[in-house]
């Protein structure tokens, strides 16, 4: 018994446990910094972020543990932070609402700033209401497009970010058919002026070169 107690409370074992505890705490601290503090710090300091580029895509699969998922486009915050002075935070918010026990979705689109949209198979853009709705089957293999900026002139925009949403089905590792949504930055017209970055890290649109047709 004396030998067992000596083994349990030996200095070497205490040292080993102390080292393991230190490694565990350090690992948790690094994980918290990398996954929580670093992204938050970057978003609160836009000067450390890069603006999106035309062609950027964002793939979303709604987790099976929930029926709702939000995807937003904003100035500094959101899934697509534009870093553009003409865009508001939560300028465009997509709410994906999954049907019960199905892969059918309602897509609610809310705007907090000027926006125009072109539904699938339509040729021209039109002013958005404060909330619009699409159904997921409408965008399978098709794209709905949205333009956002700080002003609309005669139902048109001369400077804008154009965001697209489309969807398709895929089979996951469990052999279950799921729907994937793909958001994309289709256009930044006429581009961002790289020389216009202010102290807050925000850009202005570049100089207009010509009128853009729908």
Automatic annotation (TrEMBL):
Say which domain of life the source belongs to.
Bacteria
Q: Which key words tag this protein in UniProt?
A: Membrane, Transmembrane, Transmembrane helix
Transmembrane regions: 15-34
The protein's name = Uncharacterized protein
């Amino acid at each position: 018994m004396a030998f067992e107690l000596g083994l349990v409370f030996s200095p070497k074992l205490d040292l080993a446990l102390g080292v393991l505890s230190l490694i565990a705490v350090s690992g948790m601290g690094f994980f918290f910094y990398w996954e929580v503090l670093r992204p938050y710090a970057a978003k609160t300091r836009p000067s450390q972020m890069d603006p999106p580029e035309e062609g950027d895509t964002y793939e979303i699969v709604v987790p099976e543990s929930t029926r709702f998922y939000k995807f937003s486009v904003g100035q500094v915050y959101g899934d697509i932070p534009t870093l553009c002075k003409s865009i508001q935070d939560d300028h465009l918010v997509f709410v994906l609402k999954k049907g019960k026990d199905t892969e059918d979705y309602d897509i609610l689109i809310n705007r907090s700033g000027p926006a125009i949209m072109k539904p699938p198979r339509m040729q021209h853009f039109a002013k958005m209401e404060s909330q619009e709705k699409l159904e997921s089957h409408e965008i399978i293999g098709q794209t709905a497009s949205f333009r956002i900026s700080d002003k609309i002139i005669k139902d048109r925009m001369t400077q804008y970010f154009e965001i697209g949403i489309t969807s398709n089905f895929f089979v996951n590792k469990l052999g279950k058919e799921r729907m994937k949504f793909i958001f994309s930055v289709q256009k930044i017209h006429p581009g961002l002026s790289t020389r216009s970055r202010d102290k807050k890290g925000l850009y202005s649109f570049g100089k207009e070169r010509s009128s853009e047709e729908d």
